[in-house]
Amino acid sequence: MSHWMRDSITQQQGWNQATMLNLMSEFIAERDLNDLFHEWLENVAANENAEAENVANPALIDVHTEHCCQKHGCKYGKDETCSVVQRLGSQNSQCEICQPLR
Ligand SMILES: [Zn+2]
Ligand SMILES: [Zn+2]
């Protein structure tokens, strides 16, 4: 249900959000949509968690960003702490192995 729909129904009926939630859960239970609804809720929660993690770990840019490779490892031999290999930051260029021979 879109926000627009929810708001307009709420206004028309003079219902508050708690009433709407009750009606919605009745609607879901009556139609055996519980599993679907549960799945959807888990998706929403997972997305929110992923977003929160992105905020907590802004993409790291350092000396590894330009030189190291997610596939072929850290150019400095520090795979355990390399921001590219550990995927804390993104890789900005292809490594020597990735680059086609010129
Ligand atoms: Zn590195
Ligand atoms: Zn590579």
Please give a structural write-up.
By secondary structure, this protein is mainly α. It has three helices and no strands. It has helices at residues 3-13, 17-30, 34-56. It is elongated. The termini are far apart. Bound molecules: zinc ion (2 copies). Residues 69, 71-72, 95, 97-98 line the site of one zinc ion. The site of one zinc ion has 6 residues, from loops.
**Ligand inventory:** zinc ion
Outline, from the CA principal axes? elongated
Strand content: under 5%
Number of helices: 3
Largest sheet: none
Q: Helix and strand succession?
A: HHH
Strands, total number: 0
- Broad structural category: mainly alpha
Distance between termini?
A: 55 Å
Give the overall average pLDDT: 83
The level of helicity is: 40-55%
Radius of gyration: 24 Å
Low-confidence regions: none
Briefly, what is this?
The chain has 102 residues and is an all-alpha fold. It has three helices and no strands. The chain is elongated, with a radius of gyration of 24 Å.
Labels describing this entry:
binds zinc ion; mainly alpha; 102 residues
Give the SSE layout.
Elements: H1 3-13, H2 17-30, H3 34-56
Bound molecules: zinc ion (2 copies).
